[in-house]
Amino acid sequence: MTHIMILFQIVWRLNCFQMRKYHPPVPKPVPKNNNSLTISVFDMGISDEEWERLQKALDWPGPDQQITQLDLSTSPVHSTFSIAGLKNNYKVGDNISVIITARDHNKNLKTYGGDFFKAKLFSSELKASVYGEVVDHRNGTYSVTLLLPWEGQAHVFVRLEHSSEVVQILKKYRDSSFPRSHYNGHFEGSGPNKTRIIEVVECNLKWGAEGSWRKGSCCCEYKDIKTGTVWQCERPKKLSCDKLVYHSRGSMENPLNPFEKQFFAKTLTNVPITGDTQIINILPNTTDIANGMA
Ligand SMILES: *[C@@H]1O[C@H](CO)[C@@H](O)[C@H](O)[C@H]1NC(C)=O
Ligand SMILES: *[C@@H]1O[C@H](CO)[C@@H](O)[C@H](O)[C@H]1NC(C)=O
Ligand SMILES: *[C@@H]1O[C@H](CO)[C@@H](O)[C@H](O)[C@H]1NC(C)=O
Ligand SMILES: *[C@@H]1O[C@H](CO)[C@@H](O)[C@H](O)[C@H]1NC(C)=O
Ligand SMILES: *[C@@H]1O[C@H](CO)[C@@H](O)[C@H](O)[C@H]1NC(C)=O
C-alpha cells in the first residue's frame, strides 16, 4: 500500500516537473479553448521562447523504446560512483566532482540516461548533509558537483531512486487517464415511514470530456465552483443526487501489470549504490582566517 502511495507521489511529482512534454510532437501554444482542464501557454502568459526554455529545462531523457527485459534495466548493484581526483585534504568552499556510472543487470554500461539518482555529501557526526545537482550525460554516466560547506569530515552517498525504465513506466501512466484513486459518496435521506436511507456509491473526478465513468448507472455530477472541476458519482438506487452528504477516500488503483511490477521491487528502487566511501577531510578556509586577522 505505502509503495503504491509512493508511486503516485512520484507520478504527481513528475507531473509537476515535466508537465506535458512527453507527447511526441512538442506541445505548441494551444489556442484558448473551452475545455477548462487544458491550460494553454496563452493562459499562463508566457512567450513561446519561455515555453521552449521551460521544456528544455524540464527535459528528462529515457529509454528510446519500450522495455521488454528486466535485466536491461539499471541495476543498483552494478552501478557505481567515484570521486574524481580525490585528494587527501580539501578546504571549506571547495567542490568535489562525483561520477556515477549506470550499468544494467548484466554489468553492461547503460547507453541512455534518465536514471533518477540522488547524491549527497553527509557527516553523521555533524548530522549534516547537502545534495548536489545530478547532470545526465545521456550515455549512462552522470556527474554531480558537491560543495564542501563545513569543516571536518564527510562522506559521499549516492542512491538510485528509480531506474530510467521505472521513470518510463511512470511517464506512461502519468499521461494516461486511468482512475488513480477512488472515492466514496455518502448519500442520506428519508424513506417511507420515517426511516433513514443511507447509500454509499463510488465517486470520482470527471476526467476528460466524456468523463471517466464506465460502470453503474451514470451519474450524479457536482461542480466545484472554485476550481471548475466536476465530480461524478454513480447514481444511488433510492436517493436523488442532491442527497449527497459527504465523500471519503476509497481505494487506490495500481495500474502496473506483473511485468512492470518487477521494476518496482524493493531491491531495485531507492537503493544506495557502491562507490568511493573514503573520508573526505575538509580543512578551514585559511584565506578567510588570514583575511580576518589582517
Ligand atoms: C467547445 O468545444 C466543442 C467540442 O469540442 C466545440 O464543438 C465548440 O466549437 C467549442 N466552442 C468554442 C467556443 O470554442
Ligand atoms: C575562502 O575565503 C575567501 C574570503 O572569504 C574567499 O574569497 C575564497 O573564495 C574562499 N575559498 C574557497 C575555496 O571557498
Ligand atoms: C564550486 O561550484 C560552484 C558552483 O558550480 C562555483 O560557483 C564555485 O566557484 C566552485 N568553487 C570552487 C572553489 O571551485
Ligand atoms: C559520456 O558523456 C560525457 C559528456 O559528454 C563524456 O565526458 C563521457 O566520456 C561519455 N562517456 C561514455 C562512456 O561515452
Ligand atoms: C409503514 O408502517 C405501517 C404501519 O406501521 C405498515 O403497515 C406499513 O407496511 C409500513 N410501510 C412500509 C413501506 O414499510
TrEMBL record:
Highest taxon in the source lineage: Eukaryota
Keyword Transmembrane appears in the UniProt entry: no
Gene3D superfamilies membership: Immunoglobulins
InterPro entries: Ig-like_fold, Ig_E-set, NXPH/NXPE
GO biological process, one term: nervous system development
Signal peptide bounds: 1-16
Keyword Hydrolase belongs to the record: no
Keywords tagged on the record: Signal
PANTHER family found in the cross-reference section: NEUREXOPHILIN AND PC-ESTERASE DOMAIN FAMILY, MEMBER 5, NXPE FAMILY MEMBER
Protein name: Uncharacterized protein
Native source organism of the sequence: Cyprinus carpio carpio
